[in-house]
Amino acid sequence: MASAAGATGWLRGRVKAVSSGDCMVIMGSAKTEIPPEKTITLSSLIAPRLARRGTDDEHFAWDSREYLRKLCIGKEVTFRVDYTVPSIGREFGSVFLGDKNVAILVVSAGWAKVRDQGKQKGEASPFLEELKRQEEQAKEQSLGLWCQVPEIKEASKRKLPPSAIGDASNFDAMGLLAANKGRPIQGIVEQVRDGSTVRVYLLPEFQFVQVFVAGIQAPSMGRRAPVEVLPDVEVNGDDANGVATESRPSLTSAQRLAASASTEVAPDPFGREAKHFTEIRVLNRDIRIVLEGVDKFSNLIGSVYYPDGDSAKDLSLELVENGLAKYVEWSANMMEDEAKRKLKNVELQAKKDRLRIWTNYVPPATNSKAIHDQNFTGKVVEVVSGDCIIVADDAVPYGSPLAERRVNLSSIRSPKMGNPRRDEKPAPYAREAREFLRTRLIGRQVNVSMEYSRKVGTADGPSPVVAGSSDSRLMDFGTVFLVSPSKEDDATSAPATGSQPGVNVGELVVARGFATVIRHRDFEERSNYYDALLAAESRAISGKKGMHSAKDPPVMHITDLTTASAKKAKDFLPFLQRGRRHPAIVEYVLSGHRFKLLIPKETCSIALSFSGVRCPGRDEPFSDEAIALMRRKILQRDVEIEVEAVDRTGTFLGSLWESRTNVAVTLLEAGLAKLQTSFGSDRIPDAHLLGQAEQSAKKQQLKIWESYVEGQETTNGTVADNRKRDVLKVVVTEVLGGGKFYVQTVEDQKITSIQQQLALLNLQEAPVIGAFNPTKGDIVLAQFSVDNSWNRAMIVNAPRGAIESVNDNFDVFYIDYGNQETVPYRCLRPIDPLVSSAPGIALLCSLAYIKVPNLDEDFGQEAAEFLSEYTLGSSKEFKAQIEERDTSAGKVKGQGTGPMLIVTLIDPESGSSVNAEMLQEGLARLERKKRWDSKERQSALDNLEDHQEKAKGKRLRIWQYGHVESDDEESAPPVRKAGGRR
Questions:
Q1: Peptide bond into 204 cis (omega under 30)
Q2: Please, which residues have CB within 8 angstroms of residue 291's CB and are 6 or more apart in sequence?
Q3: Which of 835, 449, 377, 389 is nearest to 635 (CA)?
């Protein structure tokens, strides 16, 4: 019990059950799974007997039981055992509800008789005199069982139909279901067989039935050993002790069935706990049952609801949520879809929390992982498909390649857009799904909540990776919320709640019938708003929206002139010149000034390039910034175009406006484009605005004009030699031979962005042989052997054939630092394309105007060591003055390859250059002067010559034998490299 018996013997407890008008079961309120309990018969009272099998109720027996049940069930009471009768194993006592004596309340209402004291002293209530006085008052008032009206007395006896338990022939289960399907039936639970099976009186007919709770199964209670059933004994008041005059609780048919088992079987784990859980909520309580179906044995399957304050609770949900029952598909299929979803969701949570029956549960392997605490805000840049968008993260610097994050909408799948390269056409409703999102999301502010990632096969899109798959990639899934939705979208979706910062975009797509909800397996990660998605799908199906419509999907034939011949494009030109401006949609940004457009009115796609305006080409300085600006400004926007001509490759030339703004003006103002020398102001719209925009960028020295000096223009791409040189603040990260080294620019925003992205990656799992097969040229993550840090790296050399062991070696080049080393397969990881797409941060440099011995030449090793000690050892910043850019080596293929900056490396503290120090130490020699050298170059060589002469005079290192210069020098002027900042 809740409190130990004190000197007075009083205990506290809660009434669990009321079996008759004078008997109740009281349980302790100790905080244990199953508290102790006592069956107490009210001292000195005799209540009318309820019906047993083969007998009828005594007059007012049901009313008597109901009075005590409604008075006490589930309430806190104080009680004391007054006496016991060992011969029948019963305890008699006094029970108080608050300060009210329950026995006195029962007698004063006329629902029990008072018996005289037995022959054994003390076998009577301590309140006997008060009980007798209350009995006399009840008699005088003809209350309860003292009523003498024959009609009322006869009506107080229930007319019970045959019990449906144990004999199916007594009961038409299908008839009851047909009459009450989906309608709540009132009832009172008389017995709990196990946690998910109850025996109930259905009111008002008092049909006694057994109901299996729909959708679940609680642990079994086993079977009990045979029990000796005491015979019903009638003993009159002249018995020696007068004890038998107090009626024993009658055995109901349910109790007799429970006592009829022949073999004892122990309960399943948590069987007793599940039964107790159900008992304290529904036993002897008023409940409502919604019949869901009938099984082949005519057993009733139903949902049981019990009162909890002002609301009603679903017993099945409560059991499953507390880990005391499991979801059962066969009976859940009888329920509504929403009720099934709730059950499955609470079971999944109970499994995750390993509650009770799930204590030892081991989840199945899954290819999805939860993403925690990765919420961000941004603007939608691109809609890839009906279930995938690209968002520019507000927290990442504008224009950074890492600002754009691909987000796949959680738990939904829209029709595939196909792949033109593989001649795959869009699936039905794929275009409509993308267009639906495009018109609602492009350029709009959204909140993104990342939820999980999943490995998928590259060929199959969102399909899971199967064993032995050679190619896979990691896809990130999240829920996207539209911060300021339109009225139409508000009406389509469920309203946002306190935890939902806007309209759920995935819900919008599903509700319009442009996507279906993925049926996840147990323990697969899913959307945090999965129920809302399923509800939206149900609405779309019932409304026959989109994919769920019986109509044929719309068909749209688009003529793609970007893949057609130049002749076909020229033939189409008159149609585009007719009517001047045409509405269009920007499908792709091919470069800063070249785009692929869809013209709906003409049902064609074209490539359009700005007339008279050019941006830096691919791999040229500021090319990425120009593309990023155009993606943010016009990608997938509604625009207007004017077409003037078509070039020999089939690209149309013209102008483009977005929101009445000439987009070429935006590029020129940002310093990301320039007017062509052949620019003809007489035939291009807004020509004066274009000229003004370029002049403004020049004056501010923006981007491509940062080295611009007024009055010193370029001719044929060659800048005058007295131009202002680019100067970078750098730190040296790696030193090679021959005066070459790698640097990182100080305060480069890309460095911070990449480091933030790498910090978010989970790199604990080793790669799976067969699923991850890096090849030469691939960008991966590699663990640097010196400090075990993970960095972006390019595969320079890979083993021939298939990977056989985690110890197979790969040569990797760390593109952000310039190091190169050999690492085993176990130290490699695949990398997200958004992280790998950014160019390497490390810049290859060479010291200008001097020649440094290579490592395999005399003093080459000493030269490299000197340069390392001077730059790497100090870890300080230098100024790198760019004298020339050498792009002749092509793309980066490993250490020492790719574009190179020819620089003068200046120590800011001393003001001297590393170039001069190398000459003065005798570790380098000057390049020869040539007659075609510019004045600036000749001046630089003259300034450095003094340092070389000092080394010569001391015969240091390379000068120890005197003159060492080679006659093998250039005899013709070199091709000048392109200027500008990389």
A1: yes
A2: 176, 177, 180, 181, 182, 185, 300, 301, 302
A3: 389
d(CA 453, CA 451): 7
Within 665-718, strands assigned E span 674-675
Query: What are the φ and ψ backbone dihedral angles of 639, each rounded to 5 degrees?
Result: -130, 175
On whether the CB atoms of residues 574 and 652 are closer than 8 A, the answer is no
Give the whole-angstrom CA distance, residue 446 versus residue 170.
63
Angle, vertex CA 671, rays to CA 665 and CA 672, nearest 5:
85
Strand 661-662 vs strand 674-675: parallel, antiparallel, or unpaired? Answer: unpaired
Contact (Cβ atoms closer than 8 angstroms) between residue 451 and residue 370? yes
Answer whether 399's CB lies under 8 Å from 460's CB.
no
Of 270, 258, 274, 263, nearest in space to 199 by CA: 258
Model confidence pLDDT, tens digit, residues 372-391: 778 999 999 999 999 999 99
Strands 90-97 vs 878-886: parallel, antiparallel or unpaired: unpaired
Which amino acid would we find at residue 537? E
Contact indicator for 845, 734 with CB cutoff of 8 Å: no
Q: Is residue 952 classed exposed, middle or buried when 0-12, 13-18 and 19+ CB atoms within 10 A define those classes?
A: middle
Cβ–Cβ < 8 Å for 560, 606: no
Give me the long-range contacts of 417-425 (CB less than 8 A, separation at least 24). 417/384, 417/385, 420/560, 420/563
C-alpha torsion sign, points 99, 104, 109, 112: positive
Residue 576, burial from CB neighbour count under 10 angstroms (0-12, 13-18, 19+): buried
Cα separation, 221 vs 198, in Å, equals 13
**What single-letter amino acid sits at 310?**
D
Measured CA to CA, the distance from residue 662 to residue 655 in angstroms comes to: 7
pLDDT in tens, 142-164: 999 999 999 999 999 999 998 88
Two structure tokens written together for 338: 């929403």
Nearest to 339 by CA among 296, 192, 347, 355: 347
According to the model, what pLDDT value does residue 708 have?
A: 79
Strands 472-482 and 404-409: parallel
The pair of three-digit structure tokens given for residue 392, joined into one six-digit string: 């520019």
What is the spatial distance between Cα 43 and Cα 112, in angstroms, rounded to a whole number?
11
Distance in angstroms (rounded) separating the CA atoms of residues 482 and 479: 10
Banded model confidence at residue 437, pLDDT cuts 50, 70, 90: very high
Domains of the chain, earliest start first: 11-155 (2.40.50.90), 168-222+266-358 (2.40.50.90), 368-504+542-548 (2.40.50), 559-705 (2.40.50.90), 724-748+841-982 (2.40.50.90), 751-836 (2.30.30.140)
What stretches of 677-741 show up as alpha helix (H) in DSSP?
A: 687-700
Q: Over range 108-132, report the average pLDDT.
A: 85
Residue 95 three-state SS: strand
Question: How much is the pLDDT for 6?
Answer: 46
SS3 content of the chain, % helix, strand, coil (to 5): 25, 25, 45
* Contact between residue 882 and residue 726 where contact means Cβ atoms under 8 Å apart: yes
- Listing DSSP states for 358-402 in one string gives GTT--PPP-SEEE--S-EEEEEEEEEEETTEEEEEETTSPTT-GG
Structure tokens at 256: 């007799």
